[in-house]
Write a structure and sequence with these properties.
It is a single chain. By secondary structure, the chain is mainly beta. The chain is built from eleven helices and 107 strands. The strands form 42 sheets. A five-stranded antiparallel β-sheet has the order 14-12-101-100-99, with no helix packed on it. Strands 19-18-16-89-92 form a five-stranded mixed β-sheet, with no helix packed on it. Strands 61, 63, 64 and 65 form a four-stranded antiparallel β-sheet that branches. The N terminus and C terminus are likely disordered.
């Protein structure tokens, strides 16, 4: 039905819109032709970009303008009215980037939050539960920064989008006034008759945001305890308040005027002058005493100029009042004694001050806009001190920021940091604890640290001195009448010198670093190549052959760039004397083929040698140079005939067995040949015997006498006097240092013998012994001037007790002396004693004698009832002066500034009357015999006639003695608080750089920690710790553990290179011996396996020709298949193959075979056929020719042999050439370079860090992956484009460096138990690399000595006291006492003697206005009056859902009304409440509570209140919904919403309100009983409950009702239950039959007994 209603409404809206459209069409058609142009209008596009040549105004922008029809299409411009055509161009502001600094968005304040419903005009008033959403706006404009003038928004939008102008806000719900519950009813205001009882409540929260105002805070009810017997007292005496103080009238003086009063001062002085004649006869001592007394009295008189104290009088009214508040005559109150109606008083005078004086000069006397402004002050003088209740004095001095004024103001001093030169580079600061080099630091190199000193100077001191000197000159010339000329400020030149250091606190900004990394070049040792072979015997100098002395030389080379050049390397040339030297010789290239003689085919012949002429270094020269040398002769040879014995060619001569010859050893060489075929039995030449197959010859026959030149180190560079005129040169005005000369010792050394005469060594390779050098320049020490002396402290400063102190000054070495320059001074710091400190000016108040008590003049009070002439209450005054500590009289202003509050200048006094009791002052207390034992007393006595008066003898009113227990001075000390940090003793020796290195002995070891001591007296009150004979601390030794660095073993030896040919790696390692602890240096990265070893792997390279296979000649044939006649056939030859070390002189020593390449190993055996006589004999195969590259598989390689013996006629030699295809990676290979990775950065052995060297290796790799000798790649001419070495840097392990501990700070609390002092340090140099890290403790604390916390505190106000009457204006009093506490919030305060607070300013909680008495009003019986103010409530904030809103928190207090007479209620004053802002407000929530048929409102802190709970219906009470629920079958729910009853559903309007409650369709099931009452639904609700107990249930659901009206189950329920049971039985049966397994046929078994099956569950999930 709800859908139908909504559909009808929608249809109605559509019809209405259609009607409006038709009306619009009709109106359009009825227009006249004259209105056709209104169908067209102008449209414009957006403005384009502002264009122009210059920035700012003057630009122009354009836009499109066209004419459009109302239907949206564009038409001609003529159709639109031209008079209204918009402009298509306008001037604009062209924005440039620099405008960003001139313009910015100006943001206004947010306006008040406005509800959304008021802005949109939609919605309706709803119940406020949490708050209402709103919107607040603000103005955002583009403005010029300079003056705030408005500008176009487009300028600011060019740089930044326009900030938002609206934001959502929340308006809190109206908050009603919240009050407490009523107090219990007071007692009846009357003890008899009709009275009133009152009960009151106080305001806890004020009404906010339009909430309900506060209700009445007082409720009254009448009471009648009993009927009054006799006449009721209805009159009372009321005392009014004192009037203002006024002066009494001054009558005309007459002789009789002074009979009853005090004569004026002038008359008293006249009387004294008249009596001088009578006193002239007094002795001089008496006159001196009188004079001194007069001086004292003069000082006792107040300073009339400042105080001008005048004594006046006050009066008050005393009336008789009726209970109804009316005033009657005093006669109606006859039984009351009247109080005093007059009293003396001080005339109030406000403090008066003079006009302000002139401003003092500005404390800043120089110009520097960036510096802080100076201050100037002005003061004014006191004219009148406040008297009585006069206004206090205003501020007498004020200060103002200022800048210096004047035409010529010098610039301010500029301070800057300066540094000394860097110290020498030191490596020892980087060494770890375990490094052995800490003991011997010589030779350390590479990375290190150097330090310098940083100090502050006045950068423009010379300029300021120049200006001051010039000013003095100008002043001097002005005095002489001469005008000075303008100072040449632009031509100032300063002498470059060290500036005077000043206090470092004057320099701002970060100071330069005091440490930096540095580098000491490590010496590069010589690396030498192996010795070359000995050369031929040659002349020492081929140009001078007159000397027939010859030498054989061998040489080696320097393979690196050592420090100091090749001159620092060992000798590179060795020489051996020899005979018959030659400079040139013939060198055999090869022997030609053997040519038989006489043109025969075989037989004996010769081999011609092929030679070339070479010099002593082996270089080929012209053959004419060897003209004097015999050329090698032809060598005889034999070509075997077919029947001759065939021999192989001679092998090469072996390496000489000795490098030189001696008596015991001679050098030998050997060569061999082998029998290739035997001769025929007849006719052929036979084979030689075995000895003829081997030849031996001598070699290296020169004696083992080797000489070489040996040099010593170069000496010191000294000045060369022979070339002094050339020692200096000038270059652009700069002089260079002089040239000097260095020498060294050069001697001739015989190997294994020692020094020999120089003529034994060849002269040509002799090293030089003298070389020029550059003399180092002299550097003088440069020291700054001494700083100014530090200030001597004065006794005014805290902690100075008058002892002599010292002042100091220092200077800084900014350049150390070097190379013989002027040395630095020994003294860099000076001290001297300060003079005796002067006494600080201290000030104190001095009070003088009280003057006589002044009464109200008798002429004024004579008519007062009971007044007596010369007695009563009065006022007395006294003088107060300000004194220095030495007693000197000074201005009162000094004491007002520094001596605390001013003592009272007046007090009340009493002149006793005849009937009054007069007593002496109290005596001192009697002494105590011992502490804490017995009592002490003090006494006073009656004076004069008071001894005889009975009332004065009343000991209760006038006690004559007082007794009190003797003070007990027992104290108890105990520790308090935690232990402090472990603090090392002060005064340790500092490092040279002035910085502490974390972990050094200076920063660890034994220290002390402290715990505060507290002292209590016998009353458990805190006292000074000195009372307990304690200095305030418990001290305990402690240990600051020293850091221990990571400890590793020494490096192991390098392993052998992993490859014998090409590049490999070698390894060394360190083992972890001890891990770091206590902040020691960390370990380097350990291996991942055991975390206990450090590896270092570097590449290495092995020369592939270092080890070679050497094969001996083949052995004689061993023929297996022997032809006995011919001695030929199949046979075997063997030879020995060894791996040998290859040197420049050839293979020398045999080594292990694994060092040689196994693939290159020659064959040790071969099988072949021994040729028979007359067979062809071939030589061994030559080497294979190289394959053509690249290896394509198409080329071949070959090898050849030649015939040594030709066969007999008719036979041919076998094939003497073999070929095979070139196949890749079998016999043909490609070669390429392979570069390894970079090694780790390698440092010198004496280096810790810094610049090192990283290397990589170059391999020649065959295409099958095998590394081969580099010559294979070099022969191919492959490009080498890689750099093999590169410099690298190893990060230095810089330890953390800390500053000194600062001085201990002031105590965090001036008193109490929790005071702490702190000191701090900072990191000057953070750790780097593997350096020792910074500690975590950068600040330390220690407890402060415990000081009791004294404070002034008020007592509670006394009750209001009115003298001798029942009601009226009276006084109430309170005391100000001294209290002590421990300063904690939970600490208990105890009252102590006032002397302990004497050093404190008289103030309570910061309020210096001490009020110890105030007027009060004691209500008369029957008065209606306001109570005292309640206590301030808790601080409460404005919150929504527990979240604070941006509203100030407030506190509130209130005053309720108290009434005593029913008829006077109408005269009661209005109740009052006040608020004040507060901080740290709390969020409170209010909720309805119910129980025991009671309903109340409770605040979230458990306080029961009235007001504050939501304005919904409390539980169990009538509720109201807004709007009211007036629809049938609807009611108001607990939530304050309209809902439908059971069986109905809500049909809502578009606004969410109930339009109607529609019934829910139900399903009727007929039964045997009452059919109409048998309605059943599917709703799960207990039908036995009435529907009114279950309100608010909505929704369209079906429900069944199994219970009838009588509460019994209906019959259909039993039927349904039976049917369900039968259905369940059927389903279970079918499942059983479907799941049952058929029986299997049983087999007969011999044993029918079955064993029981036991299942054991072992926890496996598969079970």
């Amino acid at each position: 039905m709800g859908l139908g209603v909504r559909g009808a409404r929608t249809a109605f809206l559509c019809l209405w819109r259609l009607f409006l459209l038709l009306c619009g069409v009709w109106t359009a058609r009825s227009q006249t032709p004259g209105d056709e142009k209104s169908m067209y209008f102008w449209e414009t596009g957006p403005w384009g970009r502002c264009m122009g040549n210059e920035c700012g105004p003057g630009g122009s922008q354009s836009r499109a303008v066209w004419c459009a029809h109302v239907e949206g299409w564009t038409t001609l411009h003529t159709n639109c009215p031209q008079s209204t055509r918009p402009a298509n161009q306008q001037s604009c502001f062209r924005v440039c980037d620099w405008h960003k600094d001139l313009y910015d968005w100006q943001l206004g304040a947010w306006n008040q939050c406005v509800p959304i419903s008021l802005r949109t005009g939609s919605g309706y008033a709803r119940l406020c539960s949490q708050g209402e959403e709103g919107i607040q706006t603000r103005e955002v404009t583009c403005a010029l920064k300079a003056d705030g003038s408005l500008a176009d928004d487009a300028i600011c939008e060019y740089f930044e989008p326009k900030p938002r102008q609206e934001q959502a806000c929340l308006i809190p719900c109206p908050q009603d006034c919240v009050v407490t519950e009523f107090t219990p009813w007071t007692t009846c205001s009357k003890t008899c008759g009709l009275g009133l009882q009152n009960r009151v409540r106080s305001v806890m929260a004020p009404p906010l945001f339009g909430g309900l105002p506060c209700p009445n805070l007082t409720e009254f009810q009448t009471c009648a305890p009993r009927a009054c017997e006799g006449r009721e007292t209805v009159f009372n005496l009321r005392v009014g308040g004192w009037s203002e103080c006024k002066l009494p009238p001054q009558p005309t003086p007459s002789p009789m005027a002074f009979s009853s009063g005090t004569p004026p001062r002038a008359i008293r002085q006249a009387r004294r002058r008249k009596g001088k004649a009578r006193k002239a006869n007094r002795d001089p001592e008496m006159r001196e005493l009188i004079k001194n007394k007069r001086n004292r009295n003069r000082l006792n008189r107040p300073d009339i100029d400042l105080w001008n104290i005048e004594v006046g009088y006050q009066f008050r009214q005393v009336v008789c009042v009726h209970r109804n508040g009316s005033t009657v005559s005093l006669g109606q109150c006859p039984h009351w004694s009247l109080p005093e109606t007059y009293q003396s008083c001080l005339m109030s005078k406000d403090c008066a001050v003079s006009e302000w004086g002139s401003w003092s000069p500005c404390s800043k006397t120089c110009t520097d806009p960036s510096a802080q402004k100076g201050t100037r002050f002005r003061s004014r003088q006191l004219v009148q001190l406040p008297v009585g209740a006069g206004a206090e004095c205003p501020q007498l001095e004020e200060h103002q920021a200022c800048e210096p004024e004047g035409t010529v103001v010098p610039p301010c001093a500029i301070y800057a940091w300066r540094t000394s030169e860097w110290s020498e580079c030191r490596v020892d600061a980087l060494l770890s604890q375990q490094d052995r080099r800490r003991g011997n630091q010589t030779g350390l190199c590479s990375g290190g640290l150097q330090t310098r000193e940083v100090y502050c100077i006045q950068a423009n001191a010379e300029l300021l001195n120049y200006i001051n000197n010039n000013k003095e000159k100008q002043d001097g010339q002005s005095v002489n009448g001469q005008m000075p000329s303008a100072p040449p400020l632009l031509s100032i030149s300063f002498e470059i010198s060290a500036s005077q250091p000043v206090d470092s606190r004057l320099c701002t900004g970060s100071s330069p670093s005091t440490t930096q990394l540095c580098h000491i070049p490590c010496p590069v040792e010589c690396e030498l190549s192996p010795w070359g072979a000995w050369g031929p015997c040659t002349f020492e100098n081929c140009d001078e052959r007159a000397i027939k002395k010859g030498f054989k030389f061998r040489r080696r080379k320097v393979t690196n760039n050592p420090t100091g050049g090749e001159g620092s390397c060992p000798h590179l040339v060795e020489a051996i004397p020899c005979e018959d030297p030659t400079c040139f010789s013939w060198q055999l290239v090869k022997l030609e083929d053997c040519v038989p003689e006489n043109d025969m085919e075989c037989g004996g012949g010769t081999q011609n040698p092929e030679v070339r002429c070479v010099d002593s270094e082996g270089k080929e020269v012209e053959k004419e140079m060897c003209g004097d040398v015999v050329s090698p002769a032809p060598v005889p040879c034999t070509v075997p005939c077919p029947k001759d014995c065939a021999l192989s060619l001679w092998t090469q001569w072996s390496t000489c067995s000795q490098t030189c010859s001696s008596k015991t050893a001679e050098g030998k060489q050997m060569r061999t040949r082998a029998i290739l075929a035997y001769n025929a039995g007849e006719g052929g030449s036979g084979c030689p015997n075995s000895s003829s197959l081997q030849e031996v010859r001598n070699c290296n026959e020169h004696p083992c006498v080797v000489y070489h030149w040996q040099v010593g180190p170069w000496g010191q560079c000294v000045e060369d006097t022979s070339s002094s005129t050339l020692n200096t040169s000038s270059n652009a005005g700069k002089t260079t240092c002089a040239l000097g000369m260095q020498t060294r010792k050069v001697i001739c050394v015989k190997v294994n013998v020692g020094q020999v005469p120089p003529k034994k060594c060849p002269e040509a390779p002799r090293p030089e012994s003298v070389r020029p050098c550059l003399l180092p320049c002299k550097k003088d020490c440069i020291v700054t001037p001494y700083s100014d002396w530090t200030q001597c402290p004065t006794s005014c400063e805290e902690g100075v007790t008058g002892q002599k102190t010292k002042q100091s000054r220092y200077r800084v070495v900014i350049q150390m002396a070097a190379n013989g320059g002027q040395e630095c001074p020994d003294v860099l710091n000076e001290e001297r004693d300060c003079g005796t400190p002067s006494i600080c000016p201290g000030y104190r108040w001095k009070t003088h004698k009280w003057r006589k008590c002044q009464l109200v003049p008798w002429s004024i009070r004579r008519d007062a009832k009971g007044a007596q002439e010369n007695c009563g209450a009065g006022v007395q005054t006294r003088a107060i002066s300000c004194r220095q500590l030495d007693g000197t009289l000074v201005d009162v202003v000094q004491c007002l500034r520094s001596a605390g509050s001013m003592p009272d200048v007046s007090q009340s006094c009493q002149l006793p009357c005849r009937d009054d009791c007069q007593l002496t002052n109290w005596s001192k207390f009697s002494p105590c015999t011992s502490d804490c034992v017995g009592v002490r007393t003090r006494r006073r006595a009656l004076v004069g006639k008071s001894k005889k008066k009975d009332k004065c003898k009343n000991s209760q009113m006038y006690p004559l003695s007082e007794t009190q227990y003797c003070p007990c001075d027992k104290y108890n000390a105990q520790p308090v608080g935690n232990w402090s940090d472990c603090i090392l003793p002060e005064g340790r020796v500092e490092s040279a750089s002035g910085m502490k290195v974390q972990g050094d002995v200076k920063e660890c070891g034994q220290g002390y920690r402290y715990q505060a001591m507290v002292c209590y007296d016998q009353d458990n009150r805190l006292v000074e710790t000195s009372r307990c004979n304690s200095h305030g601390y418990i001290e305990e030794a402690c240990i600051v553990p020293c850091p221990s660095d990571c400890k590793l073993s020494e490096w192991s030896n390098w392993s052998r290179c992993s490859k014998s040919c090409g590049s490999g790696v070698k390894v060394r390692s360190k083992w972890l011996r001890e891990k770091p602890y206590n902040g020691g240096r960390p370990c380097p990265k350990l291996d991942h396996l055991n975390q206990a070893q450090v590896y270092e792997v570097v590449p290495c390279v092995s020369d592939c020709s270092q080890y070679i296979w050497v094969a001996e000649p083949w052995s004689v044939w061993k023929v297996s298949n022997v032809d006995l006649k011919e001695n030929c056939g199949e046979g075997v030859q063997t030879r020995r193959v060894r791996c040998m070390l290859n040197t420049a002189d050839g293979p020398t020593d045999a080594v292990e075979d694994y060092l040689c390449d196994p693939e290159e190993m020659p064959l040790g055996t071969r099988e072949s056929r021994l040729p028979c006589p007359e067979d062809c004999v071939l030589s061994d195969w030559s080497s294979w020719t190289p394959c053509d590259l690249p290896c394509t598989g198409r080329g071949d390689r070959e090898r050849t042999a030649f015939a040594i013996r030709l066969p007999k006629e008719g036979e041919d030699c076998p094939v003497s050439m073999q070929t095979e295809p070139c196949l890749l990676n079998r016999n043909c290979f490609h070669f390429s370079y392979n570069i390894t990775d970079w090694s780790t950065c390698q440092l010198s052995a004496n280096a810790v860090c810094g610049v090192g060297l990283k290397t990589r290796m170059l391999d020649c790799v065959r295409s099958d992956g095998k590394s081969v000798d580099l010559k294979f790649c070099e022969e191919l001419g492959l490009e080498k484009k890689w750099q093999m070495n590169a410099s690298c840097t190893v990060e230095c392990p810089i330890n953390c460096k800390l500053s000194e501990w600062s001085a201990w700070s002031d105590c965090s609390q001036t008193c109490g138990l929790d005071g702490k002092m702190w000191r701090r340090r900072s990191v000057l140099q953070a750790s780097q690399g593997d350096g020792r890290p910074c500690p975590s403790q950068m600040k330390q604390w220690r407890p402060c000595p415990v000081q009791p916390c004294y404070r002034w505190q008020y007592s509670q106000w006394s009750e209001c006291r009115v003298e001798e009457v029942v009601c009226g204006v009276g006084l109430r009093f309170r005391n100000m006492s001294c209290f002590v506490s421990d300063g904690s919030s939970e600490g208990k305060s105890s009252i102590v003697e006032e002397d302990l607070c004497s050093g404190l300013e008289q103030a309570v909680d910061g309020d210096k206005d001490i009020v110890l008495e105030e007027t009060c009003t004691l209500p008369c019986p029957g008065d209606c009056y306001l109570m005292e103010w309640s206590d301030w409530s808790l601080c409460q904030s404005v919150c929504v859902k527990g979240q604070l809103l941006d509203f100030p928190a407030v506190q509130v207090r209130s005053r309720a009304v108290i009434a005593q007479e029913p008829e006077n209620i109408a005269q009661c004053p209005d109740q009052e409440w006040q608020t004040r802002p507060c901080s740290d407000g709390e969020c409170f929530e209010y909720r309805w509570m119910s129980g025991s048929q009671l309903i109340w409102c409770e605040r979230s802190d458990g306080l029961n209140v009235t007001g504050g709970c939501p304005p919904t219906r409390p539980p169990g009470s009538d509720q109201s919904c807004d709007p009211f629920c007036d629809k049938p079958q609807s009611f108001c729910s607990e939530e304050g919403l309209c809902v439908c009853e059971e069986g109905y559903t809500e049909v809502l309007t578009a606004e969410g309100l109930i339009e109607q409650c529609a019934p829910i369709p139900v399903l009727e099931i007929p039964t045997a009983g009452d059919k109409k009452a048998d309605v059943k639904t599917s709703r799960a609700i207990n039908p036995t409950f009435p529907t009114t107990v279950q309100p608010g249930r909505v929704g369209r659901t079906w429900y069944l009702q199994p219970f009838g009206p009588d509460g019994k189950l209906k019959t259909w329920v039993y039927g349904v239950a039976a049917g369900v049971f039968v259905l369940l039985v059927f389903i279970v049966s079918m499942i059983y039959l479907a799941c049952k397994k058929p029986k299997k046929p049983q087999r007969r078994q011999n044993n029918n007994r079955l064993k029981p099956l036991t299942l054991a569950y072992d926890g496996d999930a598969d079970m």
